[in-house]
Design brief:
rod-shaped, mainly beta, calcium, 335 residues, 4-stranded mixed beta sheet, metal-binding
């Protein structure tokens, strides 16, 4: 179908989008309806048909936790058929219409009357309509649009699984992974840095470190000896806003115990022992007990005794008491 330059353009409803950023200034932007366009190609006129008549709309934004004395301005609905004489009536229906969101039916201005929490509800789906106030007939088809609740940084990171209890072998190489901790932030991860968490260590240096991005805790020293110190209390902080000043934070405690490795030999508390054997002692009778000490624990402290040298190597024998870890010296034969 061809049209001339004097063809009449049907009125198109326009939804003016009002966008707010956190702590920023409100901006109004108008989205115009698309008019028919003509293009001359080699003397001919090519007609571009406009889409079906209806609302031209965009997403609205309302700042969460708004505590101002006046209702928060959200945006404006407008029809091209509105000549400003009050003949057009704007109607708002859908989620929160009339309670949370109110509209001036003459100007099309939308306001939010309540403080909203994005963590409870992220967006509201509403419907807009413009009708002739005298005839109550719609000027345009009803259209759906969204009011999104814009996030502010009102939630601190939280560690849901702490406090933690973990172990790592003593004498581990520096950089050995101990545990990965994770903090969650209820703020919007798709907007700004409100949910961007950075990890740091508040207590536990210089023995341990934490990766600021992943939350992986690692050993930070060589040759950490259980016999010198066994238990460590490490405090990890998670801070949002990418760790910037003003970010909210949460912390958790990681209790780390060094587990034993067999790195200590048994040692006798004295170099010489003096024992006496009665002449009447029978073969197999106990002569005495000796005991070595081992700084390790568990099976790493188990030991056996043996006679390796000396005058009595053929006269005496030694056995090990597994319970007391003592060496029991016995008469093997009579001289």
């Amino acid at each position: 179908m061809k049209i001339t330059s004097t063809s009449c353009i049907c009125p198109v409803l326009v939804c003016l989008c009002f966008v707010q950023r956190c702590y920023g200034t409100a901006h109004h932007s108008s989205i115009k309806g698309t008019r028919n366009q003509t293009k001359h190609i080699e003397g001919e006129t090519e007609v571009h048909h406009r889409p079906k008549r209806g609302w031209v709309w965009n997403q609205f934004f309302v700042l969460e936790e708004h505590m101002g004395p006046d209702p928060q301005y959200v945006g404006k609905l407008h029809s091209n058929s509105d000549k400003g004489d009050g003949s057009v009536k704007y109607i708002l229906t859908g989620e929160g219409a009339g309670t949370i969101f109110i509209i001036d039916d003459t100007t099309g201005d939308i306001h939010s009357t309540k403080s909203l929490d994005r963590e409870q509800k992220t967006h509201y789906v509403l419907h807009a309509q413009a009708i002739d106030r005298r005839t109550n007939k719609p000027l345009e088809p009803e259209s759906e649009f969204i009011i999104k609740v814009q996030d502010i940084n009102d939630n601190a990171p939280k560690f849901t699984d702490g406090p933690y209890i973990v172990t790592v072998p003593e004498m581990s190489d520096m950089g050995t992974s101990v545990l990965q901790v994770t903090a969650t932030d209820a703020d919007d991860p798709t907007y700004g840095n409100s949910a961007r968490v950075v990890y740091s260590i508040l207590q536990g240096q210089p023995y341990f470190s934490v990766d600021p991005k992943t939350g992986v805790i690692r050993t930070a020293l060589h040759n950490m000896d259980r016999e010198a110190r066994e238990h460590y209390s490490v405090v990890i902080q998670a801070k949002d806003m990418a760790g910037q000043v003003g970010g909210l934070s949460g912390s958790t405690t990681v209790n780390i115990t060094l587990t034993d490795v067999n790195d200590n030999p048994p040692r006798f508390p004295q170099k010489h022992y003096q024992l006496y054997v009665p002449e009447s002692a029978q073969v197999g009778s106990a002569v005495g007990k000796i005991k070595a000490n081992d700084a390790d624990t568990g099976s790493n402290a188990d030991m056996t005794y043996s006679i390796v040298n000396g005058d009595g190597i053929g006269i005496f024998s030694i056995s090990t008491d597994k319970e007391t870890r003592e060496g029991i010296l016995s008469l093997k034969k009579v001289k």
